[in-house]
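User: tokens in, sequence out, please.
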């Protein structure tokens, strides 16, 4: 990443890689001590050993590329699954790049792939393959669809297959209960994407609800609902107060309840509707240490504040606490515009 491509990669700044590696190591380390963790590149490498999956994924990933690009990538990888997985994630540099111009990549890197929930998100017993708003992220959806269909063997949903202009992203989709979804509508998830989900559940459920919160179109801090609202457990949530009181940037922003009753869809406006933490279980939370005011609020609410480094080193056992927040360092990772919920997928809970 350079100053030339940082904005195109949807970053507000260039990250300090050694610091990022340390921060991400603590983030992953906590998860590995709590649950089974899968890594995208490892799974992708396995899938690419299957000729049908490899051909389909390559054809879809290289749409829009000329034949020369396809040949260069084929020559570089030689059909090797490990090398091909690396290229699909890290991109393919143009052999004739002069070191200065903007045509550095024949196939651009997936700068945002570690935000796993953006391009794919679970909706009950299925996975919603999200239709990304920016071209630089479209290949992420292709990779995750291959992973969930062929590795995990689950049914997928895709709003873009229903309407090419429908957009959804996982940071905007949250499961509130067995019959209620909370969805953010803003610069990443649009009305057509929400209508797709409403019509999908109208065909399948007698009764269902979708609570839609309109988000500000700027600044970037509000790109997803989970930046201002997340669940911490069955009966607790974290919310950005102006969203609830409809003040400041949320003044005039609608909260709409979509009600589904025996196939009939109705819409109703209702007066009410740094929160990107990941709930690993009921009252078991993971998030950035730098969000000091949020950490303090959790502390006052009875959550034990645990340092990620102590958890990873085995000095602290998370199972000894009824409620906790595992706080990991984050000075560089937040520059990419996401937090712990963005970088995870849901855990299978009892």
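Assistant: Sequence out:
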């Amino acid at each position: 990443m350079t100053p030339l491509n940082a904005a195109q990669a949807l970053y507000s700044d260039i990250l300090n890689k050694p610091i990022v590696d340390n921060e991400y190591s603590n983030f992953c380390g906590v998860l590995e001590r709590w649950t089974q963790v899968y890594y995208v590149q490892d799974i992708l490498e396995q899938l690419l050993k299957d000729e049908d999956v490899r051909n389909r994924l390559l054809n879809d990933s290289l749409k829009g590329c000329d034949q020369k690009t396809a040949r260069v990538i084929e020559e570089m990888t030689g059909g090797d699954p490990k090398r091909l997985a690396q290229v699909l994630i890290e991109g393919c540099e143009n052999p004739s790049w002069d070191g200065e111009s903007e045509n550095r990549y024949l196939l651009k890197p997936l700068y945002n792939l570690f935000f796993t929930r953006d391009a794919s998100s679970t909706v009950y017993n299925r996975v919603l393959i999200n239709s990304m708003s920016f071209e630089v992220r479209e290949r992420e959806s292709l990779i995750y669809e291959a992973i969930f269909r062929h590795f995990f063997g689950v049914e997928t949903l895709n709003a873009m297959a229903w309407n090419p202009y429908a957009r959804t992203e996982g940071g905007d989709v949250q499961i509130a209960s067995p019959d209620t979804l909370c969805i953010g509508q803003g610069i990443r998830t649009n009305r057509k994407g929400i209508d797709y989900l409403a019509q999908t559940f109208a065909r399948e459920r007698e009764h269902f609800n979708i609570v839609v919160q309109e988000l500000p179109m700027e600044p970037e801090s509000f790109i997803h609902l989970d930046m201002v609202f997340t669940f911490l457990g069955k009966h607790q949530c974290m919310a950005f107060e102006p969203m609830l009181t409809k003040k400041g940037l949320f003044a005039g922003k609608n909260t709409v309840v979509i009600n589904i009753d025996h196939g009939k869809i109705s819409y109703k406006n209702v007066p009410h509707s740094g929160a990107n933490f990941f709930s690993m279980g009921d009252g078991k939370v993971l998030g950035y240490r730098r969000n000091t005011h949020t950490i303090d609020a959790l502390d006052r609410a009875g959550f034990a504040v645990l340092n990620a480094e102590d958890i990873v080193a085995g000095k602290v056992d998370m199972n000894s606490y009824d409620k906790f927040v595992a706080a990991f360092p984050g000075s560089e990772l937040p520059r990419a515009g996401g937090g712990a919920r963005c970088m995870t997928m849901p855990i299978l809970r009892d």
